[in-house]
Specification:
Blueprint: H1 3-34, H2 36-47, H3 55-59, H4 62-74, E1 84-85, E2 90-92, E3 95-97, E4 102-103, H5 107-111, H6 127-130, H7 151-168, E5 169-173, E6 181-184, E7 187-190, E8 196-201
Antiparallel strand pairs: 1-4, 2-3, 5-8, 6-7
Helix pairs in contact: 1-4, 1-7
């Protein structure tokens, strides 16, 4: 990569990655606090860590990882991948596309396919403990050589923020109503945000 390309990638991580991770965390807190069983399983896993656990210990927690994966499945920040142009004729699932065809894989639609994700409208982290999904079935950060450069950092940030807050505070949703998805520029975000109240320290 040239110096200019490296600079541009670093700027993308620093500036574009902030809002997208915060948006995904809002959805995670929303779903965790809507479902008592998810909340309790997560707290049990976090409580079993011990006081001297490191960031890497947290990052390797299976249920916490599954919660983050399921959040990204249901609420991919970008609904579609930026366009790709076929350089040569390509056959995809029995459909032949000529060279020069513009293709836009839709993350959101793939992540809600019932044949891949039964009861796709349901928040179910266990599905990521029961099955390993391929790169064409689960791709919240895009795919191929254009996959989001900050995907590993974003996942680590999500896990550390969730673990830190849930371990120290009890939160409740401030409003007992569904939060709707809205388009905000290129991204998908919760309409009006996700309002929460801290009830006590743990």
């Amino acid at each position: 990569m040239s110096d200019t390309e490296v600079r541009d990638e670093l700027l993308t991580i620093l500036f574009a990655g902030h809002e997208t991770t915060a948006t995904t965390l809002a959805w995670a807190f929303y779903q965790i606090h809507r479902q008592l069983d998810v909340y309790e399983k997560l707290l049990k896993e976090l409580d079993n860590l011990g006081k001297n656990s490191s960031a890497m210990d947290i990052a390797q927690l299976p249920y916490l990882t599954a919660v983050c994966q399921e959040t990204l499945r249901m609420y991919p920040v970008l609904p579609v991948i930026f366009p790709r142009i076929a350089k040569v004729p390509v056959n995809i699932a029995g459909y032949l596309f000529d060279a020069g065809t513009i293709l836009m894989p839709t993350i959101y639609l793939v992540h809600y396919r019932e044949d891949l994700y039964p009861n796709a409208e349901q928040f179910k982290p266990e599905r990521f403990l029961e099955r390993q999904y391929s790169a064409s079935e689960y791709f919240p950060f895009g795919g191929g050589s254009r996959r989001c450069l900050g995907y590993a950092l974003a996942l680590l940030e999500m896990k550390l923020v969730l673990a830190t807050i849930l371990s120290k505070y009890r939160l409740v949703l401030a409003e007992d109503k569904p939060v709707k998805l809205q388009r905000r520029g290129f991204t998908l975000a919760p309409t009006g945000g996700v309002r929460m109240v801290m009830t006590e320290e743990r």
